[in-house]
Amino acid sequence: MAIKLTKAQKKINYDQKLCRLLEEYTQILIVAADNVGSNQLQNIRKGLRGDSIVLMGKNTMMKRTVKLYAEKSGNNGVLNLIPLLVGNVGLVFTKGDLKEVREEIAKYKVGAPARVGLIAPIDVVVPPGNTGLDPSQTSFFQASPLERSVVLNIPTKINKGTVEIITPVELIKKGDKVGSSEAALLSKLGIRPFSYGLIVLSVYEDGSVFSPEVLDLTEEDLVQKFASGLSIVAAMSVALSFPTLAGAPHMFINAYKNVLSLAVATEYTYPQAEKVKEYLKDPSKFAALAAPVAAGGGYTVAATASAAKEEAKEEEESDEEDMCLGLFD
């Protein structure tokens, strides 16, 4: 026979359980549990069993326990959870991959009808097609006389003894309250437009709190963001003449360009500048790269163009090597 616990004993047990979980787990998903039924929550617990634990409770109790735990353990990072404990929320403690756990939670959404007075979480669109209703049900596709603010006016026609919707109609907009006319119509059509489940609001990890959108970032996204930040650092470094690892290569290139410009504009010269001066004195030497060779039938136009590109590429690489030698040898 199970022993019935008092309210005080239940609070003590809850406090001990939450403290133990805070001690054992460093990753927590803060989830919204609006419109989630007990059976649905039980299925979520079963699906996460193994490396994750779902804990629900009153916000005041959770906040109190978190504060006491922070005082006893000295782990002030858990205090970042307190501002997140607002509304109908729960905590999912996990040791698994955060993205995989969130995806597992999302699997347990269930469909729900549009009830009167409910705030629509999404837009509801009635699709065109045969409804299966007899012609006497056409009144459901018009506004109720008691709801003057609601105008349905869904275009219909009678086809083979049943009502058919002609065009798709946006019945309810996201954020609007569901009226009795809309609820009755959707019920008649057998449409359950909404789905509910645990929704991840925030992610806590080792004292840090961040948005769940961060979990969607891939390695390519991180590389792209890093490259973007690196380019900004390099640009600032060059603009301020402040050497950094990101800006130094660009500063060396710019310095080499300045030295080369001076050599071209004056009588001063050095080995790496002589080739540039020679090209400037006789540009026709560039045309020699594309000249066909008559021996053995000659080159084709494509082969000549390819050879010219290869030579230009080799000379460019040689110039870059010469630049570094000219600065430091």
UniProtKB/TrEMBL annotation:
InterPro entries in UniProt: Ribosomal_protein_uL10, Ribosomal_uL10, Ribosomal_uL10-like_insert, Ribosomal_uL10-like_insert_sf, Ribosomal_uL10-like_sf, uL10_eukaryotes
Sequence segments annotated as region (Disordered): 308-329
Gene Ontology annotations of biological process type: cytoplasmic translation; ribosomal large subunit assembly
Protein's UniProt keywords contain Ribosomal protein: yes
Highest taxon in the source lineage: Eukaryota
One cellular component term from this protein's GO annotations in UniProt: cytosolic large ribosomal subunit
Membrane-spanning ranges: none
Family, as annotated: Belongs to the universal ribosomal protein uL10 family.
Protein name: Large ribosomal subunit protein uL10-like insertion domain-containing protein
Organism: Trapa natans
